[in-house]
Structures are given as C-alpha cells and as structure tokens.
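forwarding from the other thread:

> can someone predict this with pyridoxal-5'-phosphate?

sure thing
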Amino acid sequence: MQHFASDNYAGICPEAMEAFVSANAAHAPAYGDDEWTRRVSERLRDLFETDCDVYFVFNGTAANSLALAALCQSYHSVICHELAHVATDECGGPEFFSNGSKLLTAPGAGGKLTPDAVREVIARRSDIHYPKPRVVTLTQATEVGTVYRPDEIAAIAALAHASDLRVHMDGARFANAVASLGVSPADVTWRAGVDVLCFGGTKMGLPMGEAVVFFDRRLSEDFAWRCKQAGQLASKMRFLAAPWLGILEDDVWLKHARHANAMAQRLAAGLAAIPGAGLLFAVEANGVFVHLPARVLDGLRARGLRFYTFIGAGGARFMCGWDTQVESVDALLENIRALMAEA
Ligand SMILES: *Cc1c(COP(=O)(O)O)cnc(C)c1O
C-alpha cells in the first residue's frame, strides 16, 4: 500500500539507484575528493547558471541548521514563517548549531512570508537588548504546499538586503516548486536574491542527502569545517553525491517533481468534488491539506492509511511523491468518499 504521510515514505527512484550502484565499482578518494562529488558540483553550477559553492550533507535539518549557523553570529536572529520547518520541526537545531541565534517567527497567509511581515519584525526593535535580525529564511515549496513566485522572493530579498540581512531558502521541496512555477532554478534563487539554498534530494527520490548551495561564496567560508564538526562530513561522500547525477541528467528531477505535483492536483480535484471535504490551502506543489471529520480520519487510519495531521494549521496532510500511483490516489479518494457517506 502507498501512503501519503510524506514524500520521504517513497523509496529511491531508479535513476538515482543506478547512479548510486555505479559509484560502487571501485575504490575512490574519501571525504569528497572524488570524481562523483566534483561532477555533481559542476552539474549544479550548470543548473544554476552560476559559480556557486556546493556541499553535501545527510539531511535537511543539518542543511538548514548549518547554513543558518554560517550566516549568523550567536547574537543574531533569523526571521522565518511561524510554520517554518526550521522553527517547528528541527528540534532547535538552528539555534543549537548557531550557538543561540534566535528564530523570530512571523505570520503570513498560505504559509508565506510577505515584505510587510518581514519589515515588521526588522522594525520591531533595534536596541542592544534584542537579537539583531541577520537572516530571512523562506521555505520553497512552503510547509503547506504553496509556492513563492520569483517576484515575491525578490521583494522580500530586496528588503532583506537593504537591511543588511541575508536570504536563506529551505528547499526541501525545491524540485516541486520549480516544476510548479515552470521557471529556471536561477530565477527563483540567486537572480531573485537568495544567498544560500538547501536543495532537498531526499524527498525528490534520492536515498538521502541534501545539497547546500552558496550563491554568495563569501558566506561559505569554513563551511566544510562546520559540516565536519557537526558529524555531517560523509567519508564515502561519493554515495551522497552520485545519486544526484542520475536525477540531474535529462531533467529527471523535474519529471519526477511534475509527476508528484500532478498526483496532488488529481487528489485535490477529487476532494473538491466531495461535499464536506474542504481544501485548506491552494495546491501548488505536491501536498494537499484538507479538513475532514475526525471519524473519517479515524476510518482512514483503521484501513491502514498513514498520514499526518500535526503539520501546518491542522487538517490532514496528504503528500505525493515521485512514485505515487494514480491508482493509489483514486483508492484514497474512494476510501474518503465511502467514509464520508457513512452516517
Ligand atoms: C523534510 C523537510 C526538511 C528536512 O527534514 P529532515 O528530516 O531533517 O531531512 C526541511 N524542511 C522542510 C520544509 C521539510 O519538509
């Protein structure tokens, strides 16, 4: 049975698996001094059309925490949306690795920060008793399945840079956002003012691993040491890197992301036709948030389906992945229809 709890329930996509296995053929230098790591870094520079600095870590919490720590002193603060993964789902990792940089949360419709919300936090205090804002972090796609347009990012980044803040992007679902927007990766990152991107690999079909991409290379100074100290320097780095080759080839990553997004659209369309099933957010990436009666949620669980209800603003979250099958979406809809019809 396919579940909708998270896109990380899916396995490894065949293209990534093939590249992973091919990296296993012979001995290779350790700690990133290998041909695969070099090639993927080059491919990412091609993809982003700029001379960025690339690092590979095991997971998204480390990517975000270490990237934010690289942008902050301990007395600085990070402005994020109140639903941001960095604030709600990283167990204090950003604060820990930055030695105490405080996260300042702001509200915003659809899981998105706005220039006004960011301006309010920046202007809140400027005295010496308050942690000085130094970073704005945006999640793309957001925690509630919406997407920032390039102009929305640019407006926030312009404001941030004018106030001497850096811009970080949590791109755990960057692929889904790019596929949804139909823009170039450069247009939603550095061209819009993003300084550092955590490019998620795990949820788009890699076995594990995220790339930390510094568009402003001055910000990556000593980042390799930071990764090593945090236990995030893979000695067999080639196995973190190689799977990226499989999915960066021929835009496989976008093909998978488009599929996941399309499955979310199919699910949303089906739900919209069920009276009493209210969609909570615009479906712009691969996640669908819906309000369903508690007995329906219980019924779905009793039928063995796994999904989360603790993320975002309540409701059930159904995530689609690279491997989500049409039949699984239709079966989920059928289960919901049947449970809703029970008196
Ligand atoms: C999944 C996710 C991450 C990374 O989580 P890990 O479990 O640490 O890999 C980061 N940000 C967002 C928005 C996520 O959904």
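The radius of gyration is 20 Å. thats all i got for now
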